[in-house]
Design brief:
Elements lengths: L3 E2 L1 H7 L3 E5 L9 H6 L7 E2 L2 H4 L16 H11 L6 E5 L8 H9 L3 E5 L36 H6 L2 E4 L3 H5 L17 E2 L15 H10 L8 E4 L6 H10 L6 E2 L3 H5 L13
Parallel strand pairs: 1-5, 2-3, 2-4, 4-5, 6-7, 6-8, 8-9
Length: 271
């Protein structure tokens, strides 16, 4: 299954999938409250911070991966089972919901992002009540070691890609969240939000591939993806796969872990 599906595909397969709203905000807004203000019909709510991460500590980053048991329990409560196909979306072009899709795909489940997300449907079609599905059986599966990169591997990886915006990557201003500014030395910047067009649908595949190749990513199986805390880095992994470049690895701790160490940091040259 491709990591992205269109609204047309969803309409044709709606009865065969669980639709999951996995939005998340960095500005203090409550994702569940926003979900209740309007979500796609029949979509269950998945809490990215609570369901898809453990409580973060500086040494592990803000959003470390949950235990397999934690993740399984959350999926079960949402009505997602071992054989469920999941289509996830958010209101940011998929950069947040990508975490859910990556976690499911990495553990052997069928899942994809809805291209365009919430914005692909008229506001008048949205529902304002919580969708509750019957609990499903979701078997805990260990996180595959080959899908993850440690902080040491990220510090010395052959192709390390930072999904954050260009300002945070450059590191010339105080980081808005983490204790140090800049990026992992040697990393290249492929901002995940720049994969999106104005309507928050993906750029054409040829352009996506060209963006990665321009950054030196011609084989994503050699790529380690990171961001602020391991959320939007998943979007870069899914887009690279969608573009035919292969499947890379996630550094879950990302900058929120790295910046709490005394390891060297790099800033971009000023123009």
């Amino acid at each position: 299954m491709d990591p992205f599906v269109t609204p047309q595909w969803l309409a044709e397969h709606r009865d065969e999938v669980v639709l999951a709203d996995a939005r998340m905000y960095l500005d203090g807004r409550n994702a569940q409250a926003e979900y209740l203000q309007g979500h796609l019909p029949g979509a269950v709510f998945v809490d990215v911070g609570a369901d898809l991460a453990e409580h973060g500590q500086p040494e592990g980053g803000r959003h470390p991966l949950p235990t397999p048991e934690h993740f399984a329990a959350a999926m079960s409560r949402a009505g997602i089972g071992d054989s469920t196909t999941v289509v996830a979306y958010d209101d940011a072009g998929g950069v947040m919901a990508a975490r859910l899709v990556w976690m499911l795909r990495t553990t052997g489940h069928r899942a994809a992002l809805l291209d365009g997300g919430l914005d692909a449907f008229p506001a008048e079609e949205r529902e304002r009540h919580r969708t509750v599905l019957p609990a499903a059986e979701f078997t805990p599966v260990p996180w595959p070691r080959g899908a993850l990169a440690t902080i040491d591997e990220a510090a010395h990886g052959p192709v390390v890609v930072d999904a954050r915006d260009r300002t945070r990557f450059a590191g010339h201003a105080p980081d808005p969240v983490d204790p140090r500014s800049g990026h992992i030395p040697g990393a290249v910047n492929v901002p995940c939000r720049e994969h999106l067009q104005e309507d928050r649908t993906l750029q054409p595949v040829e352009e996506l591939r060209a963006r990665f190749e321009a950054a030196g990513v011609v084989d994503a199986t050699r790529m380690i993806s990171y961001c602020g805390s391991g959320i939007t880095a998943c979007h870069n992994l899914l887009v690279a796969e969608h573009a035919g470049l292969g499947t890379g690895r996630l550094f879950p701790g990302s900058w929120s872990q790295y910046s709490h160490t005394d390891r060297p940091v790099e800033t971009s040259p000023t123009s």
